[in-house]
């Protein structure tokens, strides 16, 4: 009876971590295959059918990853998410190695970093969908690992690490424009961090490598009037100080939810304590922290925007925070509950409070219902103003229907043909109802439970619509 106990006692933390990581990866694979796409993923999938060096909302990396995944696994949810799943494994490895190199005197700091990361809802749930945040996070972890090597090396070896750091940062910027914020922090560290790094060749070689990596994104922006950079950068010009308190409260609540409260406290506590140790983490975080605090005076900061801070926060929390047992237990329980809700819908939440059902449930049945209504009306074209709704319906390939969308975004996607049509079935999101008296509508459902209603209307002589063909 004692042999199994002795066997497990001989296990080292790395063995336990490896087994937990393998189990977590299998769960993520299952979740990626079973949970339907959400509209934003379908939008990026549509990008991947028309590859180019940039798009209005984000750079090209997420489209490239989706294209590679669907080449291997087809136009399925698993194919769309596949490269992100592999990338997340790499991110764990790079974060583990970065933690050990940044903090060689800290006991089991690499294990602590991986535990902290994987019990957050950001990592366990938020990084499963194929969005630009996934390659952003992966390449920022690569950048941190390379930076840890650059700061611990000398001579030619340090130059090589700096070049790899620049490559990681450039690829992160090809994923999402917010990667420019840690890049700005890294530049500040090189110039003013107190190590005289600006006198060395390595940081400037790394800067050149970053510029080379981000060149396709810059060229696309230059050819399109800097549309992408202006769209994202223009948010800083909004000014609604009377709502700053509300926006700040929403920002803090969102981060407490995504990190889970206990992990969030540990990470921000660790970042504060990093000023007496690896203050490079503070340099990397400061521009984003400052921008988001300024941004709440003008508009709502979406929770996922802050994910650009998470790699540095996780390292700081792993190195300088206290005991992790309680944080890991509460984060793990939250993750299990969310996974169960994704797969079974065990908690009967109302539709407006259930983001899982609101974003992912019932799309294939909705597409079939709309196609049936269009066939009854003798119409072969479906139209909508909502780019996300148009994208998810195009992914579902409603039989006999061409999906049309009208949005300024489509003008930046090459290869989407313009087509003038005489009669379309117009689809509009009616949210949670009710359906107007005598209205024509279909419901999207989650296990026979109504989630959202879509109003139908026959329209004539629409010009300038851009056709998206499945």
Automatic annotation (TrEMBL):
Compartments, record wording: Cell membrane
One protein family per Pfam: PMT_2
Keyword Ribosomal protein attributed: no
Domain (Glycosyltransferase RgtA/B/C/D-like): residue spans on this chain: 57-220
Regions that span the bilayer: 78-97, 109-128, 156-173, 179-197, 247-268, 280-298, 304-321
Claim: Signal is one of the keywords in the record: no
Protein name: Glycosyltransferase RgtA/B/C/D-like domain-containing protein
Species annotation: Parasaccharibacter apium
